[in-house]
């Protein structure tokens, strides 16, 4: 089949606003891990006792953790479905096209891990995105049912523990010789090659979290995005947002009551720490955080369509149109800020300083994206991804040829 780029419809600005918002939230969370890896994070956090740092930590817990990864996953699934349906309408839908597209994304993820940061999710998105493409012609009922099953299934830890035992894969061995202090020394004073080795070991040691926690959330949200895309919800998003107003408000009230209880009340009771109930409490917290993330999207959409002040969130669209470029750029900036090849700030920034740094960096990205998009149709990595996908050198400058989808 001849795979040529299809002329795109006019971009839906609010979807780019959603993507920009997701990129902001992801960086606010990621920079905390860049500043202190999981290996030493709990111990490192104990030293920050000032009011501003305590408030910053609570802001991160209440408004950021576990909320933006689901958002970005849903938008990724929605993007796949919009592109696939556009190709299907023109009888150009090709599995080989999406296989190539996901393979390139996977390779970008590998390069991201090796050269910049171990916390990559692009390779996970590539693997799960390919599965999602298989579902494009399935019924809406099946897609939505699978989304719910993947989200609520309670035994992922046991399942992956069994699989790892079967494969004799022991992720805990990869960092067994490392302490918080040795990691600190490598990141702040080690060579770049030592940093690469550490990133690879970190990635391997985090595979249980990647596939046991993040992957189920991602595939669930991919499928939800696919479901929304197949129903072309983006063609009447304002109506859809108004229609789900009451259930969204009810959901956010109920889940936020639980989130507050989980964070500030339940830890004072013995039942919170029992082997029987603690996994249940944590699962409910994850579901509540995901609900909060979905509420964010609804809230921004309602604000966009029902007020005269959408100019407040409108600049997010520039970062959203270059989401891949900005995601990778954030890791590059993190490498420069925290590692030995830059300012060596690893484990020096307080919670308030990391939060402020993330916001400042993101504002810079919004401004840079706006300037870039005045002259070019796509972000640089978006353009490379498209060229490799279509096996063609596509135009990138504005006002040269008509925009191609």
UniProtKB/TrEMBL annotation:
<feature type="transmembrane region" description="Helical">
    <location>
        <begin position="284"/>
        <end position="304"/>
    </location>
</feature>
<feature type="domain" description="DUF418">
    <location>
        <begin position="228"/>
        <end position="391"/>
    </location>
</feature>
<dbReference type="InterPro" id="IPR052529">
    <property type="entry name" value="Bact_Transport_Assoc"/>
</dbReference>
<dbReference type="Pfam" id="PF04235">
    <property type="entry name" value="DUF418"/>
</dbReference>
<keyword id="KW-1133">Transmembrane helix</keyword>
<feature type="transmembrane region" description="Helical">
    <location>
        <begin position="121"/>
        <end position="136"/>
    </location>
</feature>
<feature type="transmembrane region" description="Helical">
    <location>
        <begin position="97"/>
        <end position="115"/>
    </location>
</feature>
<feature type="transmembrane region" description="Helical">
    <location>
        <begin position="207"/>
        <end position="228"/>
    </location>
</feature>
<feature type="transmembrane region" description="Helical">
    <location>
        <begin position="59"/>
        <end position="85"/>
    </location>
</feature>
<dbReference type="InterPro" id="IPR007349">
    <property type="entry name" value="DUF418"/>
</dbReference>
<feature type="transmembrane region" description="Helical">
    <location>
        <begin position="355"/>
        <end position="373"/>
    </location>
</feature>
<keyword id="KW-0812">Transmembrane</keyword>
<feature type="transmembrane region" description="Helical">
    <location>
        <begin position="324"/>
        <end position="343"/>
    </location>
</feature>
<feature type="transmembrane region" description="Helical">
    <location>
        <begin position="143"/>
        <end position="164"/>
    </location>
</feature>
<protein>
    <submittedName>
        <fullName>Membrane protein</fullName>
    </submittedName>
</protein>
<keyword id="KW-0472">Membrane</keyword>
<feature type="transmembrane region" description="Helical">
    <location>
        <begin position="21"/>
        <end position="39"/>
    </location>
</feature>
<feature type="transmembrane region" description="Helical">
    <location>
        <begin position="249"/>
        <end position="272"/>
    </location>
</feature>
């Amino acid at each position: 089949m001849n795979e040529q780029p299809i002329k795109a419809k006019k971009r839906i600005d609010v979807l780019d606003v959603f993507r920009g918002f997701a990129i902001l939230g992801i960086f606010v969370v990621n920079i905390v891990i860049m500043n202190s890896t999981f290996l030493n994070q709990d111990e490192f956090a104990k030293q920050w006792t000032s009011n501003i740092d305590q408030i910053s930590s609570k802001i991160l817990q209440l408004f950021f953790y576990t909320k933006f990864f689901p958002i970005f996953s849903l938008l990724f699934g929605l993007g796949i479905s919009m592109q696939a349906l556009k190709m299907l309408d023109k009888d150009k839908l090709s599995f080989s096209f999406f296989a190539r597209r996901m393979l390139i994304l996977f390779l970008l993820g590998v390069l991201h891990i090796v050269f910049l940061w171990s916390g990559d999710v692009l390779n996970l998105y590539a693997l799960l995105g390919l599965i999602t493409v298989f579902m494009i012609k399935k019924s809406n009922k099946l897609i939505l049912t699978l989304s719910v099953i993947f989200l609520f299934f309670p035994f992922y830890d046991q399942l992956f523990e069994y699989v790892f035992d079967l494969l004799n894969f022991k992720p805990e061995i990869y960092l067994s010789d490392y302490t918080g202090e040795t990691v600190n020394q490598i990141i702040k004073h080690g060579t770049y090659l030592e940093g690469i080795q550490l990133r690879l070991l970190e990635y391997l040691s985090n595979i249980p979290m990647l596939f046991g926690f993040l992957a189920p959330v991602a595939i669930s949200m991919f499928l939800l995005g696919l479901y929304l895309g197949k129903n072309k919800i983006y063609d009447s998003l304002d109506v859809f947002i108004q229609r789900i107003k009451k259930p969204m408000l009810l959901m956010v009230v109920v889940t936020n009551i639980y989130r507050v209880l989980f964070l500030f009340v339940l830890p004072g009771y013995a039942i919170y720490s029992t082997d029987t109930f603690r996994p249940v409490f944590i699962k409910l917290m994850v579901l509540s955080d995901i609900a909060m993330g979905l509420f964010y999207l609804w809230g921004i959409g309602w604000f966009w369509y029902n007020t005269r002040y959408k100019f407040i969130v409108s600049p997010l669209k520039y970062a959203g149109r270059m989401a891949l470029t900005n995601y990778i750029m954030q890791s590059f900036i993190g490498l420069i800020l925290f590692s030995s090849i830059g300012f060596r700030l690893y484990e020096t920034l307080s919670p308030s300083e990391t939060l402020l740094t993330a916001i400042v960096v993101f504002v810079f990205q919004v401004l840079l994206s706006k300037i870039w998009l005045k002259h070019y149709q796509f972000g640089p990595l978006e353009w490379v991804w498209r060229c490799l996908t279509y096996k063609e050198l596509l135009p990138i400058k504005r006002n040269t040829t008509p925009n191609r989808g």
